[in-house]
Hints:
The protein is of the alpha+beta class. The chain has helices at residues 3-38, 46-50, 102-139, 145-181, and strands at 41-45, 60-66, 69-72, 80-83, 90-91, 96-100, 184-186, 191-197, 202-204, 215-219, 223-230, 242-247, 254-262, 268-271, 282-292, 305-310, 321-324, 329-331, 334-340, 346-357, 362-367, 374-376, 388-390. The model is unreliable at 23-28, 30-37, 271-276, 393-424 and 433-442 (pLDDT under 50).
Amino acid sequence: MTLRKKQIIIISCIAVSVLTVILCVFFLMRRSSSSDSENPVYVNSVAAITGMDTGVASRFSGVVEPQQTIKIQKATDRTVQEIYVKAGDTVKKGDELFSYDTEETQLKLSEAQLELERLSGDITSLNNQIKYLENEKAQAPSSEAFSYTTQILTAQNDVKRAEYNKKSKEMEIEQIKKNLENATVTSEIDGIIKSVNDGTSTEVIYGMESDNAFITILSSNAYRIKGKINEQNMAMLSVGQPVIIHSRTDENATWQGSVSEIDMDNPVSSSNMYASSDTSSQSSSYYFYVELAEGTGSDLMLGQHVFMEPDMGQNDRKEGLWLSSAYLVTEGNDAYVWVSDDKDKLEKRKVSTGEYDADLDEYEITDGLTAEDYIAFPDASYEEGMPCTKNADVFMYDTPSGEAGEVLSDENVMGEEALPEEEGTGDDGMAPEDAASQEVVE
């Protein structure tokens, strides 16, 4: 073999070896890159982790209503003579509401008393007849005894029937006398007349719908808040849970309360106005009630619209940004967090810490991190530059678009004692968001 051929073979082997190495490195890099993209680092909002962003997305609309509602029905067999109140009037316990016409009732009493006297006379006559028949039977021959016995038994049955009718008539007279004594109906509570239905028109107050009661009185002694919750965000509230009530006009005006009842027995059917008409797009809502804490709510007004949100301690939150020590990576005297940068790549960022809360195991972050950042829980396998995926910050409730979790309309179901229509309130009962709140989950 010539020297030139040997050189060609050696050069070819070297070229093949270099190409093999390049291809191996290339495939290893692709594999590594593919692995990283398939297994991104999941990061969460600092605001969500620290509880700083409760927002108003979890607020429910509500209306102030009385703790007690009295509904007065008029007797169907009596005529109302005069009504002394109208919708919106304030009444005290014992105040006159309306009166019945007593002339007709007095006539009924007279007729009933005459009927009672007649029944008493019939009973006396029948008893005298029985005595006579018994005397005749004793003197009559045995062949006529059966006939007298039959007449006596018939008269005795007539006495029993008359005595029963007499007792019924006595009860009727007692009721008529009570009606005369109670010809004027008075209020059982201190309150406000919500509605008066005189048969020709119905007066109402506060934009509330009327009911079928003759007069409805709203108690003025104590208030409660009425809201509406959807079956898809039911987990957000429970009986006994503390809530914060916010004024719609003054964000600094708040009241404390707790959920006293969720009315699961009377669902309010609703459907998504943007979805199809099949049953899968329909859902039920339920009214819930918030009882005000003792000593609060005296400045609330009946019919006032408010916002409510679960009390998660947001009003007692410490100032500044406080982060659990579990998210910190310490190296000597320095502290770091794994942060998603503006290109959604993992970055090991140095932060400055301040005070330490031993009870909650939290550090105050004074520099290097904001509530808008997204961070990952530390892991030994992390390296800078790894791709990041942000977890959705679901503060309202995680549902498909068009269901609970998305404020869709300002329509509410109105009905007896129903929650009055709220601007921007959806069928789920959620309050509309403002600029201070987060985006609605789509």
